[in-house]
Each structure stands twice: as C-alpha cells, then as structure tokens.
Design goal:
With 261 residues, the protein is an alpha+beta fold. It is 37% helix and 16% strand. It has 8 helices and 10 strands. A hairpin with a 3-residue loop joins strand 8 and strand 9.
C-alpha cells in the first residue's frame, strides 16, 4: 500500500490548534488520522508502532504510526503530544454484533486470540514495567493520577503494590514471582475494536508492560461500566470464570492509589 503524504509537524500543530485542544483528533484527508492532546504520550505512540511492526497482521492490525512529537509551550508546563497515524476503517463491535448476534461468541474468541497474540510478542531486552518511555503509567490500574514513579522490574512493581496495602493495613498481598512481563493493552473495550479480517485494535493510551493479571484487572474494572457485557464475555474467554488470587490485592491497591484508602 502506498504511503500517503505526511503533513509537516508545523502543519499538524497548526491544524490541531485550529481544531481546539480538547477535540482529541482530526482527519487529514481520507488516509491519515491525527490524535493529539495533553494526555497523549510518546510512549503510547511507541507501543502502537511496536505492535504494528511486530504483530502478525493475519491476527490483528493496528494503525501504522507515521510520526509523533510533543510540544511544550514553556518550561515546566504540560506538553501537547501529536500522533500522526494511518486512518483505518471497520465496523465497530456493537453494530456488528447487533447485526450478527449469532456470531458474538466467535467474535469474542477472535478478540481473545488478539489479546493472547499481543501478550506473546517478544519484548525488547530489559524492558521494565510500564509504558515505553519515561512517562508514568496511567491506566485502569493506576488511574488518571498515575503511579508516583517508574519501575525497574517486576519485583519492584510487586513491592509498590504491596506497600500500598501495608500502608493502609490491608492483610492482602500480591505475588508476581511466577509471572512474566508482557505487553498488555489495558483498555480492551467494545469501543476500541473494529471487526474485520483481521481484527483492528485501537487506542493504546493505557497500554504498557505488566504481568497478564493487570489485563484481567483492567477488564474486571469495566464490569459495572457501559459495555460490561463485552468485558465479562472477553474476561471469560481469556481467564475463565474465577478470579486469580492476585485480583483482590490488585483491586485494593488500585483503589488506594486512587482514593487513598
């Protein structure tokens, strides 16, 4: 496929300034989508680029990243990040399953295969937990507040989780010693999936390198939200009907990080 003409960074910034800081994205022609915002990160762009390059496109496709950059208006201020990517088309999960209700389980199986494939992608050597890059982790576990620091390895992450529980006098403890780090999407919702051959997976803003149980927690986090039927169905496909021993300490640590208790 011929690569489209990519707008200059100056043009991207000008278009987004005109569109407003809270629009989150805009189309540039019919082949390019520009995602931007104060909450967008270069780590998100790096992971999306990694998945596009490393994943088997017979199983999953994620838009190609053409360019990404951040602009800080003044020292110490929050920067605006721009991701210039391929614009993709597809039928969203909700519409597709309404039209083809008998295919719901088959589609969920395909999405589960996508998640497992992403988990199986070999990571760069010595990749620490969290996002690709220096940004603090922000997702369904760490909430919008994020972690208060980065992590060196899986033991460091486990200690951080358990320290939250110790500080609030919770008896529960997490254990990741039998787990490996893998790439997790962390926001597998019905709104981030386009149905086709292959499945298209969008929005890597929450993604990062974690034990697989963090993906389970991210799905469980959606059980009382809009789209819960999808989340529960995908959870069952990936993890069965029972929660792991780490689910309770993870849920408690996430709540403590968010509200303080």
């Amino acid at each position: 496929m011929t690569r489209p003409e990519i707008p200059s960074r100056e043009e991207v910034k000008k278009l987004c300034d005109r569109n407003g800081p809270f629009a989150k994205g805009l189309a540039y022609g019919d082949k390019i989508w520009i995602k931007y915002g104060y909450g967008v990160t270069l780590g998100e762009a790096a992971i999306q680029k990694f998945v596009h390059e490393k994943a088997d496109h017979r199983i999953v496709y994620t838009p190609e990243v053409y360019d990404s950059f951040s602009v800080v208006a003044k020292p110490g201020s929050r920067g605006m990040t721009y991701i210039v990517m391929e614009k993709v088309e597809g039928e969203n999960y909700v519409d597709y399953t309404k039209q083809h209700p008998d295919e719901t389980e088959t589609v969920l199986q395909a999405i589960a295969d996508v998640a497992r494939h992403i988990w199986s992608l070999p990571l760069p050597p010595n990749t620490p937990p969290g996002s690709f890059g220096p940004e603090l982790s922000v997702n369904r576990f760490f909430s919008d507040y994020g972690a208060d620091r980065t992590f060196t390895d899986i033991e460091d992450l486990e200690n951080w989780v358990n320290q939250k529980l110790i500080e609030t006098k919770k008896p529960d403890r997490a254990s990741f010693q039998s787990h490996q780090l893998c790439l997790c999407h962390m926001d597998l919702t019905q709104y981030h999936v386009l149905i086709g051959k292959p499945i298209i997976l969008l929005d890597w803003s929450f993604s990062g390198v974690y034990p697989i149980e963090f993906e389970a927690h991210a799905l469980h986090n959606q059980f009382n939200l809009r789209g819960s039927k999808f989340a529960k169905g995908l959870f069952k496909q990936l993890f069965g009907t029972k929660f792991s021993k780490n689910m309770r300490p993870l849920s408690l640590a996430a709540r403590i990080n968010f509200v303080g208790w």
